[in-house]
Design the sequence.
């Protein structure tokens, strides 16, 4: 698991889906330490026995499924001593849509692993304009991942998200229909009683259907 977490983290941090042979063997050598195991046999175990990794190029590997890389990268983040600083570095880059898409699964999985998901959600939203961008929808996914955890449901962060989504989905706003539609869907997922009057109003308003 340690080797898989390190491989996943290196891929995730460098934004690649493949680990080349030299980098792979460097990670395996670090994990092996002083134990009498060949690096080739370690690679074989991960590729041929566990099948979590697949061969990719000469001695290189990639995760058999993208979600596995996200999962093991989240494990690495959870266990590393400077997790808070790493999360700050990641969330500071989420103003770019490509970065949100790249880190989304890892951060959602991480939210379900850590003791204080509200801190992670707050970091995702920190420095972003709540009325614009993708961070709000990522924060909603993290809330849904942890909705049964104590301190998440009904928290100030969730209520703030509800207020933002109500604003972004209002029919009178000059906003793209796709953004308003996603905001409505996110409100439904959060299942906040405060959103019900707003959703009913939208459902009964013909002007809320489509652009305009």
Sequence:
């Amino acid at each position: 698991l340690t080797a898989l977490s390190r491989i996943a983290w290196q891929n995730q941090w460098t934004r690649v889906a493949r680990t080349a042979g030299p980098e792979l063997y460097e990670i395996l050598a670090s994990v092996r330490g002083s134990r009498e195991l060949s690096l080739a046999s370690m690679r074989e175990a991960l590729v041929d026995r566990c099948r979590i990794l697949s061969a990719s190029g000469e001695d290189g590997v990639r995760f058999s499924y993208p979600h596995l890389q996200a999962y093991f990268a989240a494990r690495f983040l959870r266990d590393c001593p400077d997790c808070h600083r790493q999360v700050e570095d990641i969330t500071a880059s989420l103003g770019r849509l490509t970065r949100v898409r790249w880190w989304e699964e890892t951060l959602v999985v991480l939210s379900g692993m850590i003791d204080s998901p509200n801190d992670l959600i707050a970091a995702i939203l920190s420095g972003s304009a709540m009325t614009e961008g993708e961070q709000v929808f990522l924060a909603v996914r993290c809330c849904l991942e942890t909705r049964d955890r104590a301190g998440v449901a009904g928290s100030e962060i969730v209520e703030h998200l509800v207020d933002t989504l109500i604003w972004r989905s209002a029919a009178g706003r000059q906003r793209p229909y796709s953004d308003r539609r996603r905001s409505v869907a996110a409100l439904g997922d959060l299942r906040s009683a405060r959103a019900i009057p707003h959703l009913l109003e939208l459902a009964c308003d013909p002007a809320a259907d489509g652009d305009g």
